[in-house]
Amino acid sequence: DVKVTQSSRYLVKRTGEKVFLECVQDMDHENMFWYRQDPGLGLRLIYFSYDVKMKEKGDIPEGYSVSREKKERFSLILESASTNQTSMYLCASRNTGTGGYEQYFGPGTRLTVT
Amino acid sequence: SQKIEQNSEALNIQEGKTATLTCNYTNYSPAYLQWYRQDPGRGPVFLLLIRENEKEKRKERLKVTFDTTLKQSLFHITASQPADSATYLCAPRRWNNRLAFGKGNQVVVIP
After folding, report:
1. Which residues on B lie below 8 Å from A101 (Cβ)?
2. What pLDDT, in 10s, does the model give residues A24-51?
3. Cβ separation of B44 and A101 shorter than 8 Å?
4. Would you tell me which CATH number, out of the four given (2.60.40.10, 3.40.1490.10, 3.40.50.2300, 2.40.50.320), belongs to the domain A4-113?
5. Which residues lie across from A91 on neighbouring strands?
6. What residues form DSSP beta bridges with A90?
7. What is the mean pLDDT of chain B?
8. Does A101 contact B34 at a Cβ distance shorter than 8 Å?
């Protein structure tokens, strides 16, 4: 089974702090994604990485950056956390080789910025 | 602009009945559409993918239809069970090979 893990289930940070959210997948998937999910807004794509050191902006990249130095790990960075970044953050991976294109999600990190 | 519509009201259904959820999309011509299940506080879990040239797909008690003329997908859970209670997300493929997720439709199966 594909496993996607995220470094924390719950995180509380202060406004202005630099925040790192880590995601690791164990199935050698090329693609990885970071989403945020808010009530009434659904899942929105922040950043997408199609391979190591490759990244593309999603729909809402402002205030975020990402890093993918190794295939299995995709990090989301909040350079200076703000209260409007309080949200559920979900990481996902996808293997383009299977042709199925389904995404495998981690358990999520609920981030609160105070 | 591209839109995905799922019913925002929860669907309450008696155990054993068939639950039917609707996903409507506009300004898309997705090559495929996926359905995911999400439990509270958890990440979505992939259920089914249906391609534009497929009318219907089944997996155990789940059935998905895809009508590219109506721009609509229907998701059915037959013989529903309390364990089927969750939120179900529709996700058509976008032009750049990413997914666009609907806001989800909650299903509550009453014993």
Report:
1. 32, 34, 49, 93, 97
2. 999 899 999 999 999 988 899 999 999 9
3. no
4. 2.60.40.10
5. A34
6. A35
7. 94
8. yes
Residue in A with minimal Cα distance to B87? A42
Domain count, chain B: 1
Are B93 and A101 in contact (CB < 8 Å)?
yes
What span, in angstroms and rounded, lies between the C-alpha atoms of A105 and A77? 18
Asked if residue B47 lies in contact with residue B76, where contact means CB atoms within 8 angstroms, the answer is no
Q: Where are the domains of chain A?
A: 4-113
- Give dist(CA A43, CA B102) in Å, integer: 8
Contacts of residue A108 in chain B, CB cutoff 8 Å?
41-43
In this complex, which of A45, A100, A108 lies closest to B42 when CB atoms are compared?
Answer: A108
Tell me, what DSSP letter sits at residue B83? G
Q: How many other CB atoms sit within 10 Å of the CB of residue B16?
A: 11
Q: Which domain holds residue B18?
A: 3-110
- How far is residue A34's CA from residue A76's CA, in Å, rounded to a whole number? 7
Helices marked H in B1-111 — which ranges? none
pLDDT digits (tens, 9 = 90+) for A54-70: 999 999 999 999 999 99
